[in-house]
């Protein structure tokens, strides 16, 4: 949600609270839905398809609530924004794939070593860059938008890659292929730092990005994120790891907002 505010501030665009709120509730849905399992199998008595949803009631309740809230904000969007949202929704479902058929889980794209982090970064880029600004069709493929999306992609990719360290041991047990398993701890840090370097370089290369206060905010966030990446280790407390790595996105948004109102 904060990255959505960052987008409209840097683009000097009117704040579309419906789209930014939608990003929040859609993210809430994905977070909770990913912890549920939908099992589809024939009924024992009848030749009908049975559907069973398993998981904690809290996650189920929050997922249901977030769908309801998302629908309310969807009705307030323009057609271009609805198309962008539909695209991110399709990618998100393909990524997490919570479906089982006859007790066998359908593998999602998050099980693919190469595609996983790329797709997740694309989803976040579309949701936090393109969605808030796509109300105006002239901004969708504008030069500032393309530069902003490129920066956002590499910033998110750096975080999603280092985030793989969190589940290093559990991924080994489940046989999932991730960058962290293939590259190791040091290799994963290097890949994340390389992506973050691309993010930093793009800040300077973008000829349309002329606000030095916003540049300073993004560079400060890059420095903080680099420290997080360097210190990240799979032995850290899981909740602390999630809070710190996810917090890097919030820090960037807060820095831009802070520099904007300073």
Compose a concise summary of this entry:
The chain is an alpha+beta fold and 262 residues long. The chain has helices at 2-10, 17-33, 57-74, 79-96, 115-133, 137-140, 143-163, 168-174, 179-205, 212-231, 238-261, and strands at 37-42, 49-54, 99-101, 104-105. The chain has two domains: 1-110, no CATH class; 141-262, Four Helix Bundle (Hemerythrin (Met), subunit A).
Written account of the structure:
The chain is of the alpha+beta class. It folds into two domains: 1-110, no CATH class; 141-262, Four Helix Bundle (Hemerythrin (Met), subunit A). It is built from eleven helices and four strands, in the order ααββααββααααααα. It has helices at residues 2-10, 17-33, 57-74, 79-96, 115-133, 137-140, 143-163, 168-174, 179-205, 212-231, 238-261, and strands spanning 37-42, 49-54, 99-101, 104-105. It has a four-stranded mixed sheet with strand order 2-1-3-4, with no helix packed on it. The protein is globular and about 50 Å long. Mean pLDDT is 82; it is low at 44-48.
Keywords:
262 residues; alpha+beta; Four Helix Bundle (Hemerythrin (Met), subunit A); 4 strands
Query: What is the terminal separation in angstroms?
Result: 20 Å
Largest sheet: 4 strands, mixed
Strand % is: 5-15%
The radius of gyration is: 19 Å
Strand segment count: 4
Give the class from helix and strand content and strand pairing: alpha+beta
CATH class category label of the largest domain: Mainly Alpha
Order of helix and strand elements from N to C terminus: HHEEHHEEHHHHHHH
Low-confidence residue ranges: 44-48
Q: Which second-level CATH architecture of the largest domain applies?
A: Up-down Bundle
Approximate shape: globular
